[in-house]
Automatic annotation (TrEMBL):
It comes from Marasmius oreades. The lineage of its organism: Eukaryota, Fungi, Dikarya, Basidiomycota, Agaricomycotina. This is GTP-binding protein. CDD domains: RagA_like (cd11384). Residues 216-252 are annotated as: Disordered. Pfam families: Gtr1_RagA (PF04670). One of its GO terms (biological process) is positive regulation of TORC1 signaling.
Length: 325
């Protein structure tokens, strides 16, 4: 099953940078060296066995944009599963950016009316005024420009975990059996007496599913026109429907922070020509085991019960593997 993901936005807004962080394991510091994308660059990423993401990174210079909207219109906008449109929060040409965005929405409505639309207000690290105020302002502006289109907006930056949060949510909408995966993860969590079990995609380390059913329930900067429960822009938002986690005071940003940290660790391993395989952490409060689940996934089991042995957790992971293949 192939899902086409269009990555669009003005030149310099940061599309190739985020692609290189998420899909190629490069650090943010190297993105300054990236050249402008010429026309469209396509990537294929195998997610979960038969799900393939076909990512189209569309160079944002005006000449390319004009061509996507005219001669290449049907090629670009047909069979799209998700449109991700990136806006530079500091753009000096917001009116022009919005005009192109509206034109792209028209193309999308014409050829892929079912596609989901995600908007990223990117480079949030550059914002000086209170970030939540700026995000709210941009969100309203984008909502207005989107008309009756259902949109989900995230504030992102390549310098923190917010990018993983946004991309995990996006990818999550493309996974057809996410609910079944969550159910299997809950069973594994019960077997290990774990607080939580999380499934990551191997290359990107994006969160695919967790043992707690709704893992996108809280966020720093995200707003959606279709899911009122997620219209949270409060910086310290936390979920209320996860009683087990609450008793351990788990950080609402733990998923995206883990993705970011493991990606950085993997990069360090590659610098010393080592390959990352698995990780065990025994801290005073909890134990965490991160291990391969399938060819395309990693699983993390977090246990707060001190009587549970790490070896037992690893054995349970091994026995759970065939359920996920
Ligand atoms: P085209 O290929 O021309 O369409 O541009 P693009 O959207 O792919 O932009 P690119 O990824 O090449 O990024 C342009 C510049 O923005 C690079 O110098 C990046 O380092 C920088 N950049 C990307 N993301 C961020 C971010 O979150 N914060 C900051 N401060 N800079 C960023």
């Amino acid at each position: 099953m192939k899902k086409k993901v269009l990555l669009m936005g003005a030149s310099g807004s940061g599309k190739t940078s985020m692609r290189s962080l998420i899909f190629s394991n490069n650090p943010a510091s190297l993105t300054a060296r990236l050249g402008a994308t010429i026309d469209v660059e396509q990537n294929h990423v195998r997610f979960l066995g038969d799900l393939i993401l076909n990512l189209w990174d569309c160079g944002g210079q005006d000449a390319f944009m004009d061509s996507y909207l005219t001669t290449q219109r049907s090629t670009i906008f047909q069979h799209v599963g998700v449109l991700i449109y990136v806006f530079d929060v500091e753009s000096r040409e917001m009116n022009k950016d919005l005009e192109y965005y509206r034109d792209c929405l028209e193309g999308l409505k014409q050829f892929s009316p079912e596609a989901a639309v995600f908007l990223l207000v990117h480079k949030m690290d550059l914002v000086r005024e209170p970030k939540s105020l700026m995000f709210d302002k941009k969100y309203k502006e984008l909502q207005k420009a989107s008309g009756d289109m259902v949109i989900t907006v995230f504030g992102t930056s390549i310098y923190d975990e917010s990018l993983y949060k946004a991309w995990s949510s996006i990818v999550h909408t493309l996974i057809p059996n996410a609910a079944i995966l969550s159910k299997h993860l809950s069973t594994l969590a019960e077997a290990c007496n774990a607080t939580e079990v999380i499934l990551f995609e191997r290359t990107t380390f994006l969160v695919i599913a967790t043992s707690t059913s709704e893992h996108h329930s809280s966020s720093q900067f995200s707003s959606s026109t279709n899911l009122p429960s997620r219209t949270t822009t409060n910086m310290s938002a936390s979920s209320t429907d996860e009683p087990v986690e609450d008793s351990h005071h788990l950080d609402p940003k733990r998923y995206e922070r883990t993705s970011e940290l493991i990606k950085a660790f993997k990069y360090s391993c590659s610098r010393v020509r080592e390959e990352f395989r698995s990780l065990e952490m025994e801290l005073s409060e909890f134990t965490a085991v991160l291990d391969e689940m399938t060819r395309n996934t990693y699983v993390m089991v977090v246990v707060h019960d001190p009587t549970i042995e790490t070896a037992a957790v690893k054995l349970n992971i091994r026995m759970a593997r065939r359920k996920f293949e």
